[in-house]
Design goal:
By secondary structure, this protein is α+β, with helices and mostly antiparallel strands. It has nine helices and 19 strands. It has a six-stranded mixed sheet. Strands 8, 9, 11, 12 and 19 form a five-stranded mixed sheet that branches.
Length: 406
């Protein structure tokens, strides 16, 4: 735990302090930020208050009195609920505006770890409980230069894995000679996934599940996952979507992830052994242009040193799709934060599922992935990743600007 950095961030947010609370590991964010053992046994409530200035304060149950001893600060103990409430009032005395892992109206549910009753109790004690969402972003989503380097290393490797996947489909459908067409020439979604997984492992990468390969109408399900039983054949003339993500594997254990490495997450689409239809091109170009509208909005804000929130980037993409008449078919957020977890705790590009007011901070990574889905027909998603730096925001890999023709 970096106490000086935490207290500096608290002061920058004009807060009196940050109150961490847990019971039965309900708040994994607290364990990561405070550098506590995420696997320790916890059966009683604990509180840890970091004021804007001065020494932190601990409150622990007497039968688990050692649980926060690894952290700096003074310690008080309780047994009864009456004692807990009195000690909680004492440890936050002098502080009014306090951050917790709370979100008003559960708008940013990714940080909403504190139960309503605990918030009610603190309000009865005269505390103004505000969301820690922006503080969490600073300590969970802002990346080091070494971490950013792992993202680019994964990008180089995974782009090649994806290229080999498209070649695998083309060779399977046409034959490796390129002219052996016939109804017997095909592969299936699950076989493509297995091919991609093998490539991921050979490249020294790790993925938690997936990737996804969706053919024909299955591509209209944005979270479709093929199984051996449900896998759809891929034949000449089909439409195919591949969503693939990975990070560097651990050097000491190749089947495990490097815990500090950053993910790379992309989605591309193709047609097999034919040219795209006019409708496919229309939908693809609409999605591509929405992607580029979000990218441009972020880049312009960074170039002008203007703050930009996640919802604003989402609006840039969504407004273009609405203007094209396809708003009802864009059914998810435009993008998500990417960090050591594939869906990180920084700002998402979202003004649909949530109104994400968190800022896209410098040295953070996130996806931009608008999509349009037509059940029974097909779906197109176009996903790239971006990383922000002071004064600029960059796309970290190649951009798909036309439907691939395999």
């Amino acid at each position: 735990m970096d106490l000086d950095a935490i207290q500096s961030a608290i002061r920058d947010q004009n807060l009196d302090g940050w109150l961490f609370y847990d019971h039965h590991h309900r708040d994994p964010i607290a364990y990561r930020i405070l550098s506590l053992d995420e696997h320790s046994f916890i059966s009683r409530r604990w509180f840890y208050f970091i004021p804007a200035t001065g020494a932190p304060r601990k409150l622990v149950h007497r039968i688990e009195s050692l649980k926060l001893d690894a952290l700096p600060g003074t310690k008080r103990e309780y047994s009864s609920w009456q004692e807990l409430e009195a000690e909680l009032a004492a440890m936050t005395e002098g502080a009014t505006r306090i951050a917790m892992q709370y979100s008003p109206r559960n708008a940013i549910m990714y940080v909403a770890m504190v139960d309503a009753g605990t918030v009610e109790l603190l309000r009865e004690l005269g505390k103004d409980i505000v969301s820690s969402a922006n503080l969490v972003s600073i300590f969970e989503a802002v990346l080091t230069e070494a971490q950013i380097a792992t993202h680019f290393a994964a990008q180089t490797k995974l782009d090649e894995v994806l290229r080999s996947g498209w070649q695998f489909i083309a060779d399977s459908v046409r034959g490796s000679s390129g002219n052996a067409r016939g109804p017997n020439k095909q592969t299936d979604e699950f076989s493509v996934v297995q091919h991609l997984l093998s490539g991921i492992q050979r490249a020294g990468l790790f993925t938690d599940h997936g990737p996804n390969c969706s053919a024909g109408p299955n591509s209209a399900d944005s979270h479709y996952e093929p199984t051996p039983e449900s896998s759809r054949p891929i034949r000449s003339g089909d439409f195919v979507l591949i969503d693939i993500w990975a990070k560097l594997a651990s050097a000491s254990s190749p089947t495990q992830p490097d815990p500090d490495a950053i993910w790379y997450d992309i989605t591309w689409t193709a047609v097999v052994d034919r040219a795209p239809t006019a409708r496919e091109n229309l939908i693809f170009h609409t999605v591509r242009d929405a992607r580029d509208a979000a990218i441009a909005t972020i880049q312009q804000a960074y170039a002008a040193n203007q703050p930009i929130a996640g919802w604003q980037a989402d609006d840039a993409a969504r407004n273009l799709i609405r203007a094209a008449g396809f708003g009802d078919h864009f059914t998810h957020r435009t993008g998500h934060n990417i960090a050591a977890e594939i869906h990180g705790n920084g700002a998402h590009l979202d003004n649909l599922e949530t109104h994400d007011e968190r800022l896209l901070l410098p040295h953070t990574c996130f996806s931009v992935e608008p999509g349009l889905y037509f059940p029974g027909e097909f779906g197109i998603r176009n996903e790239i990743d971006m990383i922000t730096y002071p004064g600029k925001a960059v796309v970290t890999g190649p951009k798909q600007n036309q439907l691939l023709q395999l």
